[in-house]
Queue: 3 jobs
Job 1
Amino acid sequence: MQDLPNNLEAALKYRVEAGNFNLAIFTGQSDFDKTHPSIVIHAELGQETPINSGNFMITVNCELRQSAETDDLPGFRALARSVYGQLMSDALQTELSSEATDLHVFGILNRQFRETIDDTHWLSVLTFDAYCCRSDL
């Protein structure tokens, strides 16, 4: 079932790429240095609900980062609104299901947004849960 989060990450990457933003897009977790601005999309497989159904809750974390050295916080916030606008559609589950390979998304739940500013980076994070299954079940 580990391919399920990977398929979801790929579909979300496709959604962000469709916006033609000037930023690097990464999926999964890695220790590589990221260029800025960048977004890292990570999906983590959760609990199968109900048991033996093939349906899983996947927690998605989208982190948009930019170096604070640019001194353009309003520009960063505008970029975050635009990027996350690609992921806030009421029909996101349908769009992801049609764009992904071997993935059906039943619903998007628990969307949360937070922003962090420190001395070196601005970080904007969108998290949500996606209720999914493989489409070839």
Note: Residues 68 and 120 are 5 Å apart (CA to CA).
Job 2
Amino acid sequence: MAFDQIAYDEIEDGMRYLLALTFPNVYISNKFTMMGNECIRINLDSSDLVTQTPGLEIRDYNVMVRYYHIADMSNAPANASVKARIDSLRKTFTDNITSSDNNWAELRVDSIEYNVEDEENEDVDNLHIAEFDISITH
């Protein structure tokens, strides 16, 4: 069994491909770049060893996914629309708990934080950020 080319090819790029199917006109990258009124950022934060033998390694990969959407959240329909997109993103993940294409055994959405504020984007008006903490066992 090969232990190489997992972090990018099967975790980050696998998630990017999965999200591109559900969000076809949304810019997806590992860096914040606002293209249009929404974008998705995927970053592999770390991995932890679960089991290792001479022919097998199982790791938990911790991935941070941020969903960025420009909208006036004080407007109820806009707020509802953004929350619906976040729910759609969560459903995309939960519908793909396992992936034979990317060889992951389990994907878990550990938490979702709404209304994330960061210094990197404080100059963007009406920017709503939701952060997903995801664990993938591979």
Note: The radius of gyration is 16 Å.
Job 3
Amino acid sequence: MVVRVRVDIEGYARMMRKLRHDEAIAGPWAAAMRTVEQIARNAWMGAAPRGRTGLLKARITTKVQARPIPKWVRIKTTASRTTGTKWKRYRYPRRLEYEKKSKHYHKLTDALQRSMGTVQAVLDRAARAIEAKWRA
């Protein structure tokens, strides 16, 4: 299950055009994206229901785009039911997150939304660091 959250950054296209020509300056951006990955992972880990097995929390994985200037961070869980014969390997996180009858409805999405302030602060710091390198 992958939850997509879109973050709009003013001047992003202009900054990416400038960074494309000088990847040495892009260090603060890559570091910021790795920090965003950690923030998203911690948000999901804190919001994931424990359950009997703890699989949902244990199988949360993250990935940053493997480029000098990454553009995205992915967070997902690969948990599936491990017991029973009829529903074995059923991927239940999607049902927990999106079924309105579930007591965990939108719990992971809401955790990411709450962490957006921290993400914005990290990206602002990276933008200031890049601007400082451009001026130097």
Note: Helices lie at 12-21, 27-47, 55-58, 93-98, 107-114, 116-135.
